[in-house]
Write a structure and sequence with these properties.
With about 290 residues, the chain is α/β, with parallel strands linked by helices. The protein has 15 helices and six strands. The chain binds 3'-phosphate-adenosine-5'-phosphate sulfate.
Length: about 290
């Protein structure tokens, strides 16, 4: 394995890599958050469709109205380990919470709900690379290359930890009645269906809303890549300077970044880590195994 000459910088807390701008005490308190009945968590490995799902849920909760200008989705549906347990505990009911925690770390309550969104690791690492390069204050990696980031990702030495550990543990829970397991690719292929699934999972007050075709159409329109991309600078100033957060929104952008060797190495790891799990069938169009 190649030792990358340049790596992103992180704060290290009890072995976890944390973006440098996140207060350690918030991360620490997040580990002790007591999930409540009625809490709904959006759980993802970074860059797998979190923000998209946050906006869909926000709109479901607001009858199809898009997030108003000036509001920050990450305060409306906050990132637990960034903002702290206290912040989340003070949210009005029902609480919607974003987390990148692994299954083991995610606060559990049998009456809380968990929406897990998975994305194929090839596109995930590309998106994660641009994220890490763009948020200079968090990672100090502005001059970093894809090659360098790839080495860190494949070893699991990034915030978010090991991609496969994260996915495997949540995939195992996908049949639990309080877990909805979605993929980014599924959301891209049929966003309307994904919105309905999310609404049905959240409960009758949400599924009844999407039975109103107008509300569903509004959510569909405002959650499109084009709309979210156009509006991103109006919602929040917390964006990296040159690399837009809502960047490309494609399935298969990895083809523009991977060398043949990187492709073979990630594929090998994918096959080894997901053998006999069914995960190999999640992305028949993005990952050709064998
Ligand atoms: S984070 O930092 O973990 O919260 O990032 P996350 O939101 O999970 O992932 C960001 C990627 O999701 C893409 N995105 C979308 N794709 C399609 N449609 C919509 N509406 C949408 N919104 C966000 C975003 O562009 C990032 O992917 P890449 O591949 O970098 O474009």
């Amino acid at each position: 394995m190649i030792e990358p000459q340049q790596k992103p910088r992180y704060k290290i807390y009890q072995g976890f890599r944390i973006p440098m701008g996140f207060p350690v005490e918030h991360f620490e308190s997040a580990l002790n958050y007591q999930a409540q009945p009625g809490d709904a968590f959006i759980v993802t490995y970074p860059k797998c469709g979190t923000t998209w799902t946050q906006h869909i849920i926000w709109m479901l909760h607001h009858n199809g109205q898009p997030l108003p200008v000036g509001k920050d989705i990450n305060l409306e549906i906050p990132h637990l380990e960034e903002v702290s347990a206290e912040f989340v505990a003070n949210l009005p009911d029902p609480r919607f919470i974003k987390t990148h925690f692994s299954y083991e770390l995610t606060p559990f309550h049998p009456e809380a709900k968990y929406i897990y969104v998975a994305r194929n690791p090839f596109d995930c690492v590309v998106s994660f690379y641009y994220h890490t390069k763009g948020f200079v204050k968090h990672y100090d990696f502005a001059a970093g290359t894809f090659e360098q980031f790839f080495e860190c990702f494949i070893r699991g030495e990034v915030d978010g930890g090991d991609y496969f550990d994260h996915l495997l543990a949540w995939y195992d829970r996908k049949a639990d009645k309080n877990v909805l397991f979605l993929t980014y690719e599924q959301m891209k292929a049929n966003t309307r269906q994904a919105i309905i699934e999310i609404a049905d999972f959240l409960g009758p007050e949400y599924s009844s809303k999407v039975k109103d075709g107008e509300i569903l159409d509004r959510i569909l329109h405002h959650s499109s890549f084009e709309q979210m991309s156009q509006n991103q600078s109006r919602w929040s100033s917390k964006r990296p300077a040159d690399i837009p957060f809502i960047r490309k929104g494609q399935v298969g952008d990895w083809q523009n970044h991977f060398s043949e060797t990187q492709k073979a190495r990630l594929l090998k790891k994918f096959i080894a880590r997901t053998a006999e799990t069914g995960i190999g069938q999640l992305w028949p169009d993005s990952i050709q195994i064998g």
